[in-house]
Every structure is written in structure tokens, then in C-alpha cells.
Amino acid sequence: MKMIKNMITKAKNALGNMAVKASTFLMFQKNKMRLAVGNNSGENYIDSAVKILIAVVLGGLLLAGLYALFGDVVMPTLKSKIQEMFNYKG
Length: 90
Known about the structure:
Elements: H1 2-38, H2 45-86
């Protein structure tokens, strides 16, 4: 009889511990949710759009500069060097 009472007491303690853990967990989750909802420091859509637009414009300028450099400076120089190399009259 004493053993059964002891087992019942242990079961009640275990359930009590689980209830305390569950209520603590839910309390922490509630506080996390309250902080997340109340937090107004975030990135807006307009900020993201401006950043993307700036990146696209800078990328286009960079590509245009490289295209101009290769078209006017590098390719004619390369063409003349190759022609000089194959026009060897020795």
C-alpha cells in the first residue's frame, strides 16, 4: 500500500513538473511574440527597391565602361599586335 502511494506521489510530482515546464515555455513564447509584434525596426520595401535600383545602375555603368574600354582601346591594339606578328618578313 505504501508503495502504491509512493508511486502516485511521484506521478503527481512528475505531472506537476511538466505543467510548470509547459507554463514557463508558453510564458516565454508569449513574451517573444509580444516583442516581435512590438518591434518596428525593420527593412521596408522602399529601402530594398532603392538598393536594388542602385545596384542595377552601377552594374550597368560598369559594363558600359568595360565595353567602351575593350571596344576602343584593347581590341584595336590587340588586332595590330596580331597583324604585326603574322606580317613577319624575315
